[in-house]
Amino acid sequence: MSSLPEEDTDNVALSALQSLVHDGTPDEMAQNFKEQGNDYFKGKRYREALGFYTQGIEARPDDARLREALLLNRMACNLELHNYGSVLRDCATVIAANPRASKAYYRAGLALLALERVDETLDVCVRAVASATTARAGAGAGAGEGGRIANDGDATAFKTLRERAEKKAEELRKKEEVRAERAQRAEEEKMKMDAAFAVRVFFSSSSSLTYSLSLSLSTRRDRFFKDRNLINVPNPDGSSNPYAPKFDPEDATGRTLIMPVFFLYPEYATSDVIAEFVEDTPFGAHLAAMFPPGASAPPSWDDKGRYVDDGSSLVVYAITRRKRLLKVGRKLTLRDVCRAAGGGKTGKDGLEVKDGCLSEKYQIGIWSCLASHNISRR
C-alpha cells in the first residue's frame, strides 16, 4: 500500500481487494493481515493495525515465526493504546512458545513499568538476559537464535529499561516516604488531639474518671466542639482536606485550639485560607497581615484596590449554621466569635466545621469593603 484508505470508505474496488486477504492458506492469510497491519501501524493508526494483527492470529498460521511476529506486533499496538493487560497476556503466550523471545520480554517490561510494577520490570530484564545466556551456552556465542536475542541492540535496550525501572523505583520510594511521614504526623496529631479531648472531658465533667475515660472518641470530640459552639459535619467520603484542627504546641495546658479558617470575598468570587488561626488571636492581626496599608501591590483579584486594612473599611462577618450574620470586630478573637455564635433567639446555634475546617459555606468571611461600616468589639 502506498497510502492508507480513509475510515469508513465505500470504495468498491478497495473492498474487493481487501476481501482477497481471506483467500489462500492460513499462512498466506496471516501474512496478508500482517502486512496490512504494518501499513496502519506506520501511519500511527494503532487501533486499525491491532485489528489486522488479531485477524492474522485468528487465521491460525502454521509458521511459528509468523505467529510470534503477529503477537509481538499486537503487543506494540496495545502499548501505544495503553492496554497493558493485553500486552502482558500476549507476552505470556509468546514466551510459552519461545522462551528466548527478547522483544516479548522487552515489551512486557515497558507495560509493567507503565503500571509502576517496577520489581516485576526488573525481574523481566533479569529473565531476558538469563534466557539469552542459556541460549548462547547451548548454541555457541553469536550463533543461532540465542545470538540474535543477545545482540548489542537488545542489551542496550534492556540496560535502558532497567535504568528507567530503577529510577522509577527510587521515585516511588521517595513518594512512599513522604506519604508515610505525612501519615505519621497526622497520626501523632490525632493522638495528641485524642489525649487533649480526654483531658478536657475529665476536667470539665463532674462525673467519675472511669466514666470520662469510657467515653468514645467521637463523644469526646463532640463535647469539645460543643464547648466552643462548633458543629462538626464530617465528610461522608472521607477527608480530602490538607488542613485540620489541632492544639497550640506552645500552650502547656493543651487547651488552645488552632483552626483553619476560610475568608471569602463574594464580590470577587474568590477566597483565602488561614491554615493556622489560633483561637485567641484577634481578627485585626490577621487583617493587618493580609491587607497591610502601603503594600506595594494589592491582591491580583482586587482590581479596585479597596481591600486595605486602614482600621475601618474592612467589614468581617461570621455565618452561623442558622444563617445568622455576626459582625466581627477587629479586637474579637476566634474564641469570642465561637462563643457569640451559640446564642440567638432562634435557639442553639454555632459555626459549622466541615471536613476539619470552618466550612466554605458557613465560615468567617470578608463581605464588603464599605468605609461607612464601623467595627467595634461586642
UniProtKB/TrEMBL annotation:
<dbReference type="GO" id="GO:0006457">
    <property type="term" value="P:protein folding"/>
</dbReference>
<dbReference type="InterPro" id="IPR019734">
    <property type="entry name" value="TPR_rpt"/>
</dbReference>
<keyword id="KW-0175">Coiled coil</keyword>
<dbReference type="GO" id="GO:0051879">
    <property type="term" value="F:Hsp90 protein binding"/>
</dbReference>
<feature type="repeat" description="TPR">
    <location>
        <begin position="30"/>
        <end position="63"/>
    </location>
</feature>
<keyword id="KW-0677">Repeat</keyword>
<dbReference type="InterPro" id="IPR011990">
    <property type="entry name" value="TPR-like_helical_dom_sf"/>
</dbReference>
<feature type="coiled-coil region">
    <location>
        <begin position="155"/>
        <end position="189"/>
    </location>
</feature>
<feature type="domain" description="Cns1/TTC4 wheel">
    <location>
        <begin position="250"/>
        <end position="359"/>
    </location>
</feature>
<comment type="similarity">
    <text>Belongs to the TTC4 family.</text>
</comment>
<dbReference type="GO" id="GO:0030544">
    <property type="term" value="F:Hsp70 protein binding"/>
</dbReference>
<keyword id="KW-0802">TPR repeat</keyword>
<protein>
    <recommendedName>
        <fullName>Cns1/TTC4 wheel domain-containing protein</fullName>
    </recommendedName>
</protein>
<dbReference type="InterPro" id="IPR044059">
    <property type="entry name" value="Csn1/TTC4_wheel"/>
</dbReference>
<dbReference type="Pfam" id="PF18972">
    <property type="entry name" value="Wheel"/>
</dbReference>
<dbReference type="GO" id="GO:0005829">
    <property type="term" value="C:cytosol"/>
</dbReference>
<dbReference type="GO" id="GO:0005634">
    <property type="term" value="C:nucleus"/>
</dbReference>
